[in-house]
Amino acid sequence: MSDNQEKENKQIEQKVEQKKEKKEFKEHLKNADAVYNKYYLILLLIPVILLALTLVYLTYFSYQNGDIIKKDITLTGGTSIQVHTNTDIIKLRSALENKFEDVSVREVSDIITGEQVAFIVETASSPEEVKPFLENYLSIKLNNDNSSVEFTGSALSGSFYNQLRVAILIAFILMALAVFLIFRTFAPSVAVVFAAFSDIVMTIAVIDLLGIKMSTAGIVAILMLIGYSVDTDILLTTRVVKRHEGSVNSRIWSSFKTGITMTLSALSIVIIGLIFTSSFSSIFNQIFTVLAIGLFFDIINTWAFNASFIKWYVERRNK
Question: Which end of the chain is more exposed for a tag (fewer CB within 10 A), N or C?
């Protein structure tokens, strides 16, 4: 057999193998479509049940604590003192808790070496009470060179917190109006708003479960989360509802490939930011924590609830 004939035979074998692989891939797609068509309404129920449980928990949490979140001194008022020295954080926290109420102590570390360079004490007590105690405990005189003191009155913090809550409410209402104007159809618009609402509520519940006290940075992160939440939902709804090429499942799959890439890219960046800022910046740490939790729930609410709901709506409309 000549070399040319061998090459031709190999090419024929390759073409046959490629056709076989394409056929098998199509069979897998058909099987996947059949499974999705059979169980997608059950998939839809998972976020609904999760949201119901979350709302029950937040209701109980609010009854126990007077609000749906635990607030730090930036929202309740109090004193924050950062001292540039090295000390045993556990012993310091124990000493402060014996003397003052509502105390939080955080270590500040060097981002490169990981060594402690300072610590931050936050408490509802006044600077006049906390500063002398720290001077006596550390046996040093606190001044502008080795420390910084911030105090926020409870009235000012409470007013700022109320303004932030109003800002979140207004942002959410404007987002909902924008969605209704884009789609001009009730059902798909409600699905997008539901997903965004679920992202926020579930994120707050996890923050409470972790025992994290929300600061102004956390509230700002909730505002950012509203924008993140609707991106993939609008992408999905636009492709599935407004376009007509291909099957409903193929349009959902196309949206999923684009949307999950967007979300996972954002989530990766947020997690990297969380790792690098956890030791020296409580502000960035809380922002990245809120966004990471919210983006995780956005995957569930978009691709379990919204995709299933839109599929049900489009197929029902077509009938």
Answer: C
Nearest to 192 by CA among 204, 205, 206, 175: 175
CA dist 111 and 286 (Å) reads 17
Rounded-to-integer distance, Cα 47 and Cα 192, Å:
13
- The number of beta carbons lying within 10 Å of the beta carbon of residue 182 is 16
Rounded to the nearest 10 degrees, the angle between the axes of helix 186-209 and helix 282-300 is 130
Nearest to 171 by CA among 230, 244, 87, 128: 230
- The CB density around residue 168, as the number of other CB atoms within 10 Å, is 17
Ramachandran angles phi, psi of 246, nearest 5°:
75, 175
Residues in the chain: 319
Beta bridge partners of 214: 71
CATH superfamily of domain region 30-71+155-318 = Multidrug efflux transporter AcrB transmembrane domain (1.20.1640.10)
What is the residue whose two structure tokens read 């999905």? 236
Residues 282-308 have pLDDT tens digits of 788 899 999 999 999 999 999 999 999
What CATH class does 78-152 carry?
alpha beta
**Domain boundaries of the chain, sorted by first residue:** 30-71+155-318, 78-152
Beta pairing partners, 121: 81, 105
Q: Which amino acid is at 95?
A: A
